Amino acid sequence: MRWRRLTGNRLSLAALCGILLVVAAALLAPWVAPHDPDETDAEATLSSVSLRHPLGTDIYGRDQLSRLIHAARVDLLVALSATAIALTLGATLGALAGYRGGWVDQLLMRAVDAIMAFPAFILAMGITAALGNSTANLVAAIAITHVPIYTRLIRGEMLKARETEYAEAARTVGNRPRQIVLIHLLPNCVPPLIVQATLAMGFAVLTVAALSFIGLGIQPPQSEWGQMTAEGAGYVVSGEWWLVLFPGLAIMATVLAFNLLGDTLRDVLDPRMRGVR
Amino acid sequence: MSMDRRSFLKISAGAAALGSAGVRPVRSDAQDKRTLVVAWDTDIDTLDPAQFKAIGGYVTIANCYDTPIAWKVQPIQGKPGFALSQPAQWEGAAAESWAMERDGATIVLKVRQGLKFPSGRPVTAQAVKYCFDRGLQSPGYMRLLFPSLIGVKSPEQFEVRDEHTFAMRMEQPNPMAMDILALSNNAIMDPDEVKAHATQGDPWAAEWLKRNIAGIGPYRLVKNEPGVEIGLDATKNYWRPEPYFQRVVLKFVPNETDRVLLLKRKAIDMVVGRPGLSPKNVKSLEGEQGLKVFTVPDTTCHYLAMNQQRAPFNSVKVRQAINYAIPIQALMPSVLFGYATQMKSPLPHLTPGYTGNLSPYKHDIEKARQLMKEADVKTPIPVKLAVRVGYVTHEQAAVWLQRELEKIGFKVEIVKETDATFRQVAIKGDHELSIESWQSWVNDPWYHLNFLMHTRSKFTNASFYSNPVLDKIIDESLPETNSDRRLGNARVAQKILIDDAVWGFLWYDSWTRVMKTDVTGIEKRWDTFERYYGARRA
Amino acid sequence: MGFGGYLLRRLLLVVPTLAGVTVISFALTYLLPGNPALVKAGALATPDVVREIERQMGLDRPVPVQYWRYVSGLLRGDLGESSSTGRPVLEDFRQRVPATLELTLASLLVAVALGVPLGVLSAVRRDSLLDHVSRLLGVGGVAMPSFWTGLLLLYVFFYLLGVAPPPLGRLAADVTPPARLTGLYVIDAALTADGVALVSALHHLMLPALTLGFAVMAPLTRMVRATMLEILESDYVKAAWAAGLPRRRVVYGDALRNALIPVITVLGVIFGFLMAGNVVVEMVYAWPGLGHYAVTALVTKDPGPIQSFVLFVAVMYVFVNLAVDLLYGLADPRIRLR
To answer: Is residue C64 part of a domain?
Structure first.
């Protein structure tokens, strides 16, 4: 029934298909891209949309379609690893705080408060500026800013779950604390985590793009959608519209897909959470 | 507050309806014609003439302070409305004339009669001495340039002969001395004003001079709102003819696309800065109705620095191989769009002594591979190529270089660094390959080579080139007054440096400005920063 | 616990948060690569000049000492100096905060004006085409990179149509700023009945506020839609309908009013988005505010402004969230017990 609700909605179905398409493009990039994304061609710089170059070429004569496809790898990889790290770290800390309580909880929650005192993008900006522009640092920056979401979420669930008869029962039967957390309580937290992570994916892609725009994200010549859009934006005025349109659309479509899917998942999996964030 | 909500809404609606006609500034009256509106992306970092680094600081100082003498500009053929400085041509400024004594080892300046500071106090020889004393002793450029280039090491070498006569005594005659005197750093300021703001810890009032002008020049700084605009007004009762532009407004526009749009809409008169517009955008504005592009060859060098303290760049064969791998035929049209000249020597092609036929290098991958083989290095060689954020042509050149260098056995990773990081890493000697740029304020071969090639120039010799033979030639040639020997030595030095493949030779930028068709009288001097008093509207 | 107790507890929580914030902002600039003394010294500096500047800036001292100097400086209102403007950071801030504040508030207004009706309509006609379109618009706003929308709007409205003013700041060149009361030109001009300045200020604010407002309205739309749905499905509304009250009055009267209370909670989030969005949008429109200042500082690795910007935004954010919590606590007493 849940599945039907997910697929029955045409918008979410489209979102799901979009994500699958991007993931497929990313996985199969070397096979589906028509050209080497880094192959420069002095003879074909800034050429418009054509059969040979379906999305045109840039100032180095590189094929934009191929770069777009390869960029999907970078974007998804950064977003996915940041989200995965944030989720694992955040959930673990949240569980720890929620289960142990006391000073551990106090300490962790104050740290989380300090991180959350910064708007996520501003902090990510500061961290990448401080650590330097590399893909790993970008992942770290986005992960750090996302950790508190999961920590708070899991801690909340833990606090609630700890009081339930169910946890009480597990304890009296003699299960060790770690087992209680892992086997009985965490599964309850999975639906909201999935929802959060899906939404975070979209946000991560946007953060990468915006950081690249101000010169702090993925560095050329590695292709990344945000950086391609930012670079292409300068060409609007001289008429090379293909350089900004396609990467911009790629970002929009991907972020949109993740957000719509996240919304629907929330409606389906976790109705209590509707509208938050 | 008397306005109720309804009338507020009316005004807002009115604002929307007014649209273009009512609100956009319309330049119609005579007052506006006399205002020059320029867009750039710099603030004034400091107004201390000894210390500025940002273009904002430099241009403001160049327009608001007189120097003792100045580079003289001459109209150029085929480019009406533009003028350039010429080698060895100066004109009087705060000093109305100069004379040489002791075969040129002493330069005597006659301070302009009747010239007054804004305070009303006259500009005297004492004032000139005070400014040179300050330059020599306060932290900044002149403390380095005076002793190392023209042998002026002590304030006693600056001498006041009478109210209007000042002399600078060097150890020996020096052909660079006049150019050094023409630098904007020698701004003439009011000693009483400066002393009034000096403190115990800051005897030269560097703190106060950061934000204040204490001298006289064609313009006065009337507005400095960082991030918004700088306003300059023409000085009244000034010794030069009254400038056409009574006001110059320099608008801070951080986004290049915006600068292009502003030009296209004719909402500004001109874009300046470094570079202000990338070659690609200049090209796209060429032929645009109502705009004109002015471009002349210039002395700014862009080169690939190869750190010779590190393998494999300590091998001359490898460095030569890299020079044969530089895809200059792609860089010139696709990165620089023709607004540059191919570099064929470590000296700028406009510098006296430049020899353009020594370099054997051209794009030849086979030859490059051959040299790599001879160098006997193990490939692939992983290497980092550093460029500065915001240097568009460098970033683009790096991409082209990356491809070609990979063909001869390198595995290149491009690293973008901010200015600060780039400089720190460079000075520590941690760059392997990097794209550097340099512009010599003094158009002299030995000024240039001293900073870029001498072993002792640790902060500016980005390749860490060290050659005792060359060092000796530089040391001997710096004070050399015999022009034949001076230029002959330059040829020898170039031969050594080119054979040593000291840099990856890239290009010299052209000095390029895009402006509205009616703006004329644009002048370019050796230091590349514009003065606006010669500009006019046709 | 009464509201007084809640207020006290909530205020006390702010203290450790702010302390944590200063540690983070200090750590960020301490970690910044690039020696600020070198930047300050310039290309032709000698090593002894660099050392002199390092000493002046206190860079040769141990980290805890530097941190202590930083915090005690903050308490004295000393935020350091900017190397690109050559002025104290505090002075630069005074000049730029009103510009950012004006843009932020105007964008908030745009977001509310667009987001609330969109959310309400979505909920009322759930799963209709309108719902899909409005959800798409809401989510699309957040999905579009604002530097992209900004440039596009500028291209169309300034370059092609000529209805928007050139991106040269907050007022037209020939308009003198209104007398300074708040520093927000629109408000100052309105208060002093300066029609010319008001029109010019609004005109210049138009595109940036639209760009930014559109980018942040998604969470608002989503929240309004969700709470509205919840309320429309509640027994109370069903009862009202069953009792024959006009649908329109139920929906746009009581239901909407109740739906708007939880919206307070999103305002904090939106404020965060706005502060972040400012950075990019100010760059696109040459808006002379803090974001623009911060990016310049980031690119030149100018520690004073970066530190102060990050700190300022965080402190603002902490207090906005505090205000949101208190307002919400006041509106919904249950929250105080948590």
So the answer is: no
B511 with B298: CB under 8 angstroms? Answer: yes
Q: Which residues in chain B are classed under CATH 3.90.76.10?
A: 86-193
What single-letter amino acid sits at B93? A
Sign of torsion over alpha carbons B146, B147, B150, B151: positive
CA distances from B282 to B259, B278, B287, B295, C285 (A): 11, 6, 10, 10, 21
Closest partner residue to B44 (CB to CB) among C85, C198, C200 is: C85
Domain covering B297-510, topology: Dipeptide-binding Protein; domain 3 (3.10.105)
**Half-sphere exposure (CA, 13 Å, Cβ side) for B15?**
21
Cα A201 vs. chain centroid, distance in angstroms?
2
* Cis ω before C303 (30° cut-off from 0): no
Query: Can you read off the two tokens belonging to residue A2?
Result: 């849940």
Please report whether residue C85 resides in a domain.
Answer: no
- Domain B86-193: give its CATH code: 3.90.76.10
pLDDT of residue B339: 95
Which residues in chain B touch residue C96, judged by CB atoms under 8 angstroms apart? Answer: 227
In the CATH scheme, what is the code of domain A2-273?
A: 1.10.3720.10
Q: Which of residues 114-173 of C touch A (CB under 8 A)?
A: 127, 132, 135-136, 139-140, 142-148, 151-152, 155, 159
Lowest mean pLDDT among B1-10, B476-485, B518-527: B1-10
Indicate the residue of B284, B389, B414 with minimum beta-carbon distance to A221. B414
Structural domains counted in chain C: 1
pTM of the full structure: 0.86
Residue of C nearest to A225 (CA): C145
* φ and ψ at residue B326, rounded to 5 degrees: -70, 120
Residue C61 placed within a domain: no
The residues with which B165 forms a beta bridge, in sequence order, are B110, B162
The answer to whether the beta carbons of residues B231 and B223 sit under 8 Å apart is yes
How is residue B307 annotated by DSSP? -
Pairing of strands B69-75, B35-40: unpaired
In a domain? residue C20: no
Domain that holds residue C156: 96-331
Q: Which of B217, B89, B165, B78 is nearest to B532 (CA)?
A: B217
Angle, helices C263-285 vs A186-213, to 10°: value is 20
Q: Is B254 on the interface with A (CB under 8 A)?
A: no
Q: Say yes or no for a CB contact (<8 Å) between A209 and C145.
A: yes
Cis amide linkage into residue B380, ω under 30° from 0: yes
In chain B, the residue whose alpha carbon lies closest to the alpha carbon of A212 is B389
**Pairs from B14-23 (Cβ < 8 Å, separation ≥ 24):** B14/C199, B15/C198, B15/C199, B15/C202, B15/C203, B18/C199, B18/C203, B19/C163, B20/C161, B20/C162, B20/C163, B22/C199, B23/C165, B23/C172, B23/C199, B23/C200, B23/C203
- Using a CB-CB cut-off of 8 Å, the residues of chain A touching C301 are 129
pLDDT digit string (tens) for chain C, length 338 residues: 577 787 888 888 888 888 888 988 888 877 766 666 766 666 566 677 778 777 877 777 888 888 888 888 888 888 888 877 888 899 999 999 999 999 999 999 999 898 888 888 888 888 788 888 887 777 777 788 888 888 888 888 998 888 999 888 898 887 888 888 888 999 999 999 888 999 999 999 999 999 999 888 877 888 888 888 888 877 777 777 777 777 777 777 777 777 777 777 788 888 888 888 888 899 889 899 998 888 888 877 777 888 889 889 888 888 888 888 888 777 766 555 44
How many whole angstroms separate alpha carbon C60 and alpha carbon C51?
Answer: 9
Chain C stretch 31-90, residues whose beta carbon is closer than 8 A to a beta carbon of chain A? 31-33
Task: Give the residue from B317, B254, B355 showing the smallest Cα distance to B499.
Answer: B317
Task: Return the pLDDT at B26.
Answer: 41
Q: Does domain B5-65+217-290+517-537 have CATH number 1.10.10.10?
A: no
In terms of Cα–Cα distance, which of B71, B109, B69 is closest to B93?
Answer: B69
